[in-house]
Structures are given as C-alpha cells and as structure tokens.
Amino acid sequence: MFQQVPMVDIEGMMLVDQTRTILNYMALKYDLYGRDLKERALIDMYTEGMADLNEMIIVLPLCPPDQKDAKIALIKERMTDRYLPVFEKVLKSHGQDYLVGNTLSKADIHLVELLYYVEELDPSLLANFPLLKALKTRISNLPTVKKFL
User: Fold this and answer.
1) Residues whose CB is less than 8 angstroms from the CB of residue 94 and which lie 6 or more positions away in sequence, other chains included
2) Which of 44, 61, 113, 129 lies in the 20 to 30 Å Cα band around 122?
3) Which SS3 state, helix, strand or coil, does residue 10 take?
C-alpha cells in the first residue's frame, strides 16, 4: 500500500506494510490482546510507551558519529530512569508472570524485544531489574519463541 516493508501475506491477504498493524492483527488472531477492554487499554498503553524508546534505539545507527555517544548516554539514562523501572514496578505490583492479566500478550513480546536491544546496548543495564530479566528468560524459553530465536 505504501510501497515499503514489512509486508505479510496471511491467509491470502496482503497485510498492510505497517509494523503496528501487522502486530495488532497477529495479537488479535493469536489471543495476545487481552480478555477485555481494560486489559487492551493497558496493553496499548505499555506498547505505546515502549514504542517511544524503541524508536530512539532504531534510529541510533543513523545518528552522526559525533553525536552517537551522547545519544547512547541519553538512551541508557531513559532506560534506567524512566522505562525499565515502570515495567519492573508493574510486574512487582501484581506479582504475576506477565504485564497484563497473567497471560502472554503483545505487550510482553514487545518488552522482550526491547530487552534484547537493551542487552545489546549494555548488558549491565538490566542488573537492577530482576523481574524484567526473569520475564525475558521466561518468554525466550517458550517453545514457539525459542524456535524463532
């Protein structure tokens, strides 16, 4: 539609080439989008929050070399001061294995993707977030995810 990737052919339908649209379709199809409107709102809130940080990380390779160190420092600061504490607190507050409703959701998958980026940038950044590390391990060890990784 917009002459760009990604594009997915699912069940004979060329799904539009917007990542979030594809992920939303997959989340609905595979029951990864909550049980009710409240859970969906939480999933959307967490996912959109992660998108802000994800976009900062994705454009990092395009950053001019003389600005790269400052950009990395900003990303690390935002991760450890803003984003990671929020998700650690969510997991701690309800004591369940996943962000919403104690079942795997697209928010958990997005978060694990982000945690892989975090580890790639600086593995020590997760040191103070044991629940996030456990979530990453738990989801990474799911048979379908493990097969993909």
Assistant:
1) 102
2) 44
3) strand
Number of domains in the chain: 2
Longest CA–CA span in the chain (Å) reads 47
Contact yes or no for 46/33 (Cβ under 8 A): no
Q: What pTM does this model have?
A: 0.85
Strand partners, 10: 13
3-state secondary structure of 2: coil
Residues 3 and 48 in one domain: no
Nearest CA-CA partner of 112 in 137, 130, 91, 80: 137
Encode pLDDT of 38-94 as tens digits.
999 999 999 999 988 888 898 899 999 999 999 999 999 999 999 999 999 999 999
